[in-house]
Specification:
374 residues; 9-stranded mixed sheet; 10 helices; 31% helix
Length: 374
């Protein structure tokens, strides 16, 4: 079997690349996963499934060595020829496809969200553990340039004790684009809470640990919209830190990406990590002359106390380079050597508990305590 256990003490042979099967070649598959897999030493994008002949042709053009298949089932039928399955299909298919891949004996990476519920995520985690197989969730925003910078400032004590963490993914899209991501059908797991909110919840948990209570406000603002497009979450962590998170498609003026307030200093950062834009434009990690994930000085955030950064207060802080390639490099290392993947299914389940509590809070207009519902 080409699949490699991360718990069984043994690793894959180092004399050949690990063969990756990618399910789905839409936005997630073509813009994020395929380029990053192809750029990772020790991995080879081998087989891509998509029902679209146009996307199959696109995959073969962008990755000339790749084979294509019409269905995910056709890829899973070739499990003996693969070492890893990456799932970049619509959200509602994540659980059944991940379970099928694990049952076929293959390690799995799933695009976020792993599932609709924490219970489903925990069940998948248990299946992977029972089979001794890697199961990881693609939370690439842990390797955003600004998040890496915030994390370092906190670890270095530059802010002192953090009291409040503010994080936003805001956009101005007054006209819905349609498709399953904006569908109001609960089976589709659409809406911003489970899309961008998955990233924000994961980042807050990564920085500050478990959440004990959640309050949320969620609205459908745009004419013709079906799913939440303007949502706010207030999290209270077990250590007392409060995280305030916004996801919106209706923000005519964008707020700061991060504002972090401590008892010694605060940090404010505007703008977005440049890696997604670079990938959409066809640039790739390792391209000659490309400083991957680096932003100009004009984009740096500011650190200080007692003054507005917009009025020149605080000192500019060089933003660490973004590093999406680190995710798949860590996946490759876990498959070869064993050990935990960079994002675990149990971590994904913890974030889903927060999102489920937020959904309940918004529906009932109350604060929800984690661990006391249902």
């Amino acid at each position: 079997m080409g699949a490699t256990s991360v718990r069984g003490g043994g690793g894959a042979a180092h004399d050949r690349p690990l063969r990756v099967g990618l399910l789905g070649y839409g936005l997630a598959g073509s813009v994020f996963h395929a380029p990053l897999i192809a750029a990772t030493e020790g991995l080879r994008l081998d087989l891509v499934s998509t029902a679209s002949p146009e996307r199959q042709a696109q995959a073969r053009t962008e990755h000339p060595q790749v084979r294509t298949a019409d269905t995910a089932e056709a890829v899973l039928a070739r499990a003996e020829d693969l070492d890893l399955i990456v799932i970049a299909t619509p959200n509602k298919t994540h659980v059944p496809l991940a379970a099928a891949a694990l049952e076929a004996g293959l390690p799995v990476v799933v695009d976020k969200p792993l599932a609709a519920t924490a219970a489903e995520a925990e069940k998948l985690a248990a299946l992977a553990e029972d089979r001794g197989l890697l199961l990881s969730v693609f939370q690439n925003r842990r390797w955003d340039n600004d998040f890496r910078t915030v994390r370092k400032l906190i670890e270095d004590g530059a802010l002192g004790d953090v009291w409040r963490f503010e994080s936003r993914f805001e956009r101005w899209r007054p006209t819905p684009k349609g498709g399953w991501r904006e569908s109001g059908d609960p089976a589709e797991i659409g809406g911003l809470l489970y899309d961008l909110g998955s990233h924000l919840a994961d980042q807050a948990l990564t920085l500050f640990g478990p959440v004990v209570s959640v309050y949320a406000e969620s609205d459908v603002r745009r004419p013709g919209a079906e799913a939440d497009d303007d949502t706010f979450l207030a999290l209270t962590h077990a250590n007392g830190v409060r995280s305030h998170l916004w996801v919106s498609a209706t923000a005519a003026l964008l707020g700061p990406r991060f504002r972090v307030l401590g008892n010694r200093a605060g940090y404010t950062k505007h703008g977005l990590d440049p890696q997604e834009a670079a990938l959409r434009e066809g640039r790739r990690p390792g391209d000659e002359g490309v400083e991957w994930g680096v932003e100009p000085r004009s984009g740096w955030g500011r650190l200080g106390a007692g003054a507005s950064p917009r009025m020149g207060g605080g000192e500019p802080v060089p933003t660490l380079p973004g590093d999406y390639p680190a995710y798949y490099a860590a996946i490759e290392r876990a498959l070869r050597e064993g050990g935990q993947p960079p994002v675990t299914a149990r971590e994904a389940a913890a974030a889903l508990r927060v999102l489920e509590a937020a959904k309940l809070s918004a529906a009932e207009g109350r604060t929800v305590r984690i661990g006391t519902e249902g």
